[in-house]
Amino acid sequence: MIDPIEFIHNASSISKKSMNRLKLKSNPFSEKPIRGNTKFFVGRNSELSEIADILGAAQYGSVANAAIVGTKGIGKSSILNILYYAAKRHGHWIVQLEASQVTARQFLIQLMHSIIGDNLFSVDGTLSTNYMEHSKKIIEIYRRLNTYSDKTPVHYPREKIERDLKYLLHNVKEEGKLCVILVDEADQFAKRSCLGLLQFFHSFLYEDDILAFFAGPPTMMEDLTKISPAIRDRIPKVINMPPLDKVEAHDLILRRLEDVHTNGASEYDPFTPESIEKIIEECDGIPRRIIMTCSEAISIGLKNSSTIVDEAMVESALKKLGISVGHQILNHLTPAQSKIVRAMADLGGSSTVTELSGVLNNSPGTIGTHLSDIYEMGYVYKERDGYNVYYTLSKELKDVLIIEKDE
Predict the structure, then answer these.
(1) Residues 339, 344, 348, CA angle at the centre, nearest 5°?
(2) What is the pLDDT of residues 39-48, one digit of tens each?
(3) Would you state the torsion angle of the CA atoms of residues 304, 310, 312, 314, taken in this order, to the nearest 10 degrees?
(4) CATH for 130
(5) What residues are paired with 240 via a beta bridge?
(6) 321 lies in a domain?
(7) Within 13 Å, how many C-alpha atoms sit on residue 27's CB side?
(8) Considering the entire predicted model, what is its pTM?
(9) Residue 171 sits in the same domain as residue 236
(10) Is the pLDDT at 275 greater than 60, yes or no?
(11) Is the same domain home to 129 and 268?
């Protein structure tokens, strides 16, 4: 009978020895966004320059809210984290949120809680001496926020929340300081149920000293303005995040490897030159995909007790990651949506609503509605060719549906 503690101890010791065989102290490829530590951050000079211009102008009264847009894994969260620490260094109030709260009231609760907790309290959890003049009111608001529950909506009505928020911004915040609000995954607001929240933003984003950055996919602004056209005027700046170029992609891998190399390792150890080129070629300059592929390839090298990570291991990593993500997407789809993407795979991965309607014997209106929902989730892409709009499966779905079908 195997002792489980002994088994884990022995297995982890073997992994450590195998890691040293690959000339690494540890696996340096983490998917977590950069938080304050910028040594692994590469490129983005033009995007950082745009953000610096927006922040600098806002400090002198010329506020222009911005959208940061790009495909999944392109580095939007890392840019927001860098912006968070840059604004902190300037002494501004800074709030970082995810667009998980779908009503204006819920969002306001989250926003105020973060404003007070992240900016008015010291590290030890006590109110900063800078705000003692308003201590009674601040603590009263914070206590109310902490006891808030959706089940008791009358407990903290929206009118009262908005009054308290204005009190913090107009009476408590120091003059000349901004309240910088960073909202990740802001495409979640592009739903009919969020119309009230977008209407709130119409006036809120015109408040003095409020600077907001909304991060989301390339179509985010188009999708938001479909729900509420006026929001386009409130977010006049759009910062596009393109893929990394080849030099930047090499630099991303190299910086992480150098950080954990053992003595005597050369620059790209344990990767062979061919495996590095394979990663750069297949990952299309998407940082998260580069990082995930490198991490998975190292794991395969460890399991094989190898001294190198070669091109075959990278190919295995790419295939495993593609299938894994693809299956997660399929599990996320409804049965009707799943039928549509499988029919698209049968048609080669790209088709029109009319073609799918004929194959599935369903009305174009129904097919179009389902495809719009799948498109909003980022699992298919669309492109106009003359009078026709073609929907195309994402690479992850192609890896599952088309490759498996061929096999």
Answers:
(1) 145
(2) 888 989 999 9
(3) 90
(4) 3.40.50.300
(5) 69
(6) no
(7) 19
(8) 0.76
(9) yes
(10) yes
(11) no
